[in-house]
Amino acid sequence: MASLVKYKTTPIKDEFIIGTQVLGVGINGKVVECERKSTREKYALKVLRDVPKARREVELHFEASRHPHIVRIFEVYENTYNDVNCLFVVMECMAGGELFTRIQDRAHGAFTEREASNIMYSICSAIAYLHHMNIAHRDIKPENLLYTDNTPHGVLKLTDFGFAKSVSESGEKPLETPCYTPYYVAPEVLSSKKYDKSCDVWSAGIIAYILLCGYPPFYSHHGLPISPGMKKRIRAGQYNFSGPEWDRVSEAAKDLIRKCLRTDPAERATIDDVMRHKWITHYNKNPETVLDTTKILLEQRSQWPEVEEEMEKALASMRVDEVHIKSLRDANNALLEKRMQNRQK
Questions:
Q1: Which of 137, 199, 159, 175 is nearest to 29 (CA)?
Q2: pLDDT-derived band of residue 322, with 50, 70 and 90 as boundaries?
Q3: How far apart (Å, rounded) are the C-alpha atoms in residues 343 and 145?
Q4: Which residue among 239, 249, 278, 314 is least enclosed by CB atoms within 10 Å?
Q5: Which residue ranges are tagged as binding site?
Q6: Which enzyme type, at the first EC level (predicted)?
């Protein structure tokens, strides 16, 4: 299939002022702020070394970016920077920040189950669009879910297609490379077996779980990014809905999580099943039950900074992609040790 991307070879600096503020770090490159000279509009600029893998990332993302819940790519430049061939990807600037940061930083009001289902509707509609295009994202996680702005009407969008890959329904292009962030990885990705795009549904189920209670279903009991025991529990699907924070959560929400977190991909809900589930279809009618999510996420930030620091350091070396180690920040993990200690009391 011919690429839909029209690569521009003119110097990007003819049209944009490139800032020094780093907005984020993707799998394959960093994202900085930039400004269009003619309009003074702000954009996000992703800088990638021009290699086939980067082109795949750009082309898959560009093709998908027409969806309202996927970060839009506007232009792509082929330029040389410091004698290195690079791609400069001009994307919309997501000024609202990351999903969980927004929940943590709520100035007032409580986070409700209806809000959680609204968020999951946005995430799952993006995944559904990708899966209908036979694209597996393979890195569905909160850090890749960003808001357009800080207003109550900010739109949640999926980004970072560094692990994304085209797959075929016939299985002619199976997914084999272990690409994952530890807390969101599906059991089949941990094995040496081939897997398919249903790994994205597992990750969506993990996010739904965290949205409803404030901590992930699988974590290391030793404060590590991933451990043999954690892998064993992921493969066995050993999680629960215990604790007072789950008492107020609806059975419909728990049912959706159970269907997403089935360890056998053949038995797991497809993304179309998820979009038809009553907790998703009724996302604007679900109970406005106040959840403990914000409080629990804030506990880990205010009471456990030293744990958070250690987890971030450990996770910096745990990013897995084709057996190469990638350095990437992973926030929102300090609560794990606290949850583990609370459960052992």
A1: 159
A2: very low
A3: 29
A4: 278
A5: 46
A6: transferase
Q: What distance in Å separates the CA atoms of residue 345 and residue 343, rounded to the nearest whole number?
A: 6
Q: Which listed CATH number (1.10.3720.10, 1.10.510.10, 1.20.120.790, 3.30.750.24) goes with 97-344?
A: 1.10.510.10
Binding residues for ATP: 46
Q: What pLDDT is recorded for position 323?
A: 29
Length of the chain: 345
Q: Which of 204, 184, 216, 241 shows the shortest CA–CA distance to 337? A: 216
Specify the pTM. Answer: 0.84
For 292-331, the DSSP string reads SHHHHHHHHHHH-HHHHHHHHHHHHT-EEETTEEE-----
- What is the spatial distance between Cα 43 and Cα 89, in angstroms, rounded to a whole number? 10
Separation of alpha carbons 323 and 320, rounded Å: 6
Catalytic residue from among 14, 105, 139, 264:
139
Q: Is position 273 annotated as part of the catalytic site?
A: no
Please state the separation of Cα 227 from the chain's center in Å: 21
Q: How far apart are CA 281 and CA 274, in angstroms?
A: 9
pLDDT tens digits along 258-293: 999 999 999 999 999 999 999 999 999 999 999 988
Which long-range contacts does 316-322 make (Cβ < 8 Å, 24+ apart)?
318/182, 318/225, 318/226, 319/27, 319/181, 320/178, 320/179, 320/180, 321/27, 321/162, 321/163, 321/177, 321/179, 322/177, 322/179
b (16+ CB within 10 A) / e for 256-276? bbebbbbeebeebbebeebee
Encoded amino acid at 180, one letter: Y
Report which residue type is found at 33. Answer: E
Of 173, 178, 175, 179, nearest to 194 (Cα)? 175
**So what's the architecture of 8-92 in CATH?**
2-Layer Sandwich (3.30)
Q: How far is CA 281 from CA 69, 147, 159, in A?
A: 17, 22, 24
CB of 213 closer than 8 Å to CB of 289: no
As a whole number of angstroms, the distance between CA 143 and CA 80 comes to 29
Residues 94, 97, 103, 105, CA torsion sign: negative
